[in-house]
Amino acid sequence: MPKSVISIIVAAAVLLLSAPLPVHAQTTGKDVGQKMADTGAAIKDYTLEKKNEAVAHAKKLGRDIDAKIKQLDAHASKQAGEAKAKSKEMIKDLKAKRAVVAAKLNDMSKATKASWDDTKKAFGDAWQDLATSYDKAVAEIKK
Fold it and tell me: What confidence tens digit (pLDDT) does each residue in 84-137 have?
């Protein structure tokens, strides 16, 4: 092979290997909130026969949101003055809504055939409220 062809191949390989890797978009708080809302809405589709699955799924959602709220609280703690006070109030509201979700989960775990549809709807509605509030808090606290 002529030296010029080898030089072109080597140059092309160097260019390809040194090209920046594609940057993956970071997950935003809004993405998390939307996923939370979608996942919470999915609970409404569970049948009574799948109650144990629904409860287990809801418990996992609870653990996930607890971790997200904790992260948001840590971020809010780094703020100062009026921003910090406002952020802490939003976190307090999130925690109160999280407590409502926990109560609805408890109701859902004890639901009977007669109460199943109402309790899973109540859980889904409470979860949706929490997800919406989380979105707003993230937008406000992380700006």
Answer: 999 999 999 999 999 999 999 999 999 999 999 999 999 999 999 999 999 999
* Longest CA span, the chain: 83
Q: Strand, coil or helix: what is 80?
A: coil
**CATH value at residue 81:** 1.20.120
Contacts 24+ apart (CB under 8 A), 112-118: 113/48, 116/48, 116/51
Closest to 68 in 3D by CA, of 138, 139, 143: 138
111: in domain: yes
Tokens describing residue 138: 């993230």
Q: What values do phi and psi take at 47, rounded to 5?
A: -90, 165
